[in-house]
Amino acid sequence: MIEFNSVAYGFDDVPVLEDLSLTIETGEFVVLVGPNGSGKTTLLRHCNGLLTPDSGTVLVDGTPVDEDLIAARSTVGMVFQHPRDQFVAATVGADVAFGPENLGLDRSAIDNRVTAALEAVNMADREDDRIETLSGGEQARVAIAGALAMKPLYLVLDEPFTGLDTPARRSVRSRLESLSDRGTGILLATHDLREVRDLADRVIGMRDGQIIIDDTPEQAFADCAELAIL
Ligand SMILES: Nc1ncnc2c1ncn2[C@@H]1O[C@H](COP(=O)(O)OP(=O)(O)OP(=O)(O)O)[C@@H](O)[C@H]1O
């Protein structure tokens, strides 16, 4: 379970999140929507300690994130908005191996994780490909594989469809669907609720750093239209 308890956060004393409380259950598929600047990315970055609350707490499976960053980062995988900014190596295999290598695993365990993560995103046998030669959709899937290689219980994705063409969106979407089916909790921020409405268990709508909708996809879709937050 990822828990936000009365979290407040500001940049340079400008408040962004205010008294925000939220619980995401293990295995849930939660979609986060809201206008530009409503605080979605800021919220997501608290899930694995990239940002620390000014007040309040964020807990992952009961442990405050800032008390055990390694545990939080192994449990919560993060896929950023522009996958290109996330890559640390020139080839697919080396990039996906980077996280497990930092866990100090032995080579065969690392290789197994890389193979499984690439299989999960339909990129098996592409380990030697150079990242710069991949399409946008393939890069998005490699970024997801990099997070999966840490065997996270939760996957947090910030606008994973941005800049992708239709086939690539479909492909990322179907990967997320199968991960969710296999029990990975997913928290995904998007501008386009339609894209993932049928995958979501629950939709959270934000405005001005606060949660104003927390409902089933059907109800939330209607509320988003009414509140003009999409
Ligand atoms: N590094 C930063 N320094 C100062 N202000 C920031 C920083 N990052 C975000 N902000 C501000 O915090 C507010 C929330 O931004 P955030 O990126 O969390 O919103 P968002 O809902 O993810 O927006 P978008 O949909 O455009 O990505 C905005 O007013 C933004 O300008």
UniProtKB/TrEMBL annotation:
GO terms for molecular function: ATP binding; ATP hydrolysis activity; ATPase-coupled transmembrane transporter activity. It is found in: Cell membrane. SUPFAM superfamilies: P-loop containing nucleoside triphosphate hydrolases. It is a peripheral membrane protein. SMART domains: AAA (SM00382). Residues 2-230 form the ABC transporter domain. Its main location: membrane. Keywords: ATP-binding, Cell membrane, Membrane, Nucleotide-binding, Translocase, Transport. GO terms for cellular component: ATP-binding cassette (ABC) transporter complex. InterPro entries: AAA+_ATPase, ABC_transporter-like_ATP-bd, ABC_transporter-like_CS, ABC_transpr_CbiO/EcfA_su, ECF_ABC_transporter_ATP-bd, P-loop_NTPase. Pfam families: ABC_tran. Probably part of an ABC transporter complex. Responsible for energy coupling to the transport system. Belongs to the ABC transporter superfamily. This is ABC transporter. It comes from Natrialba asiatica (strain ATCC 700177 / DSM 12278 / JCM 9576 / FERM P-10747 / NBRC 102637 / 172P1).
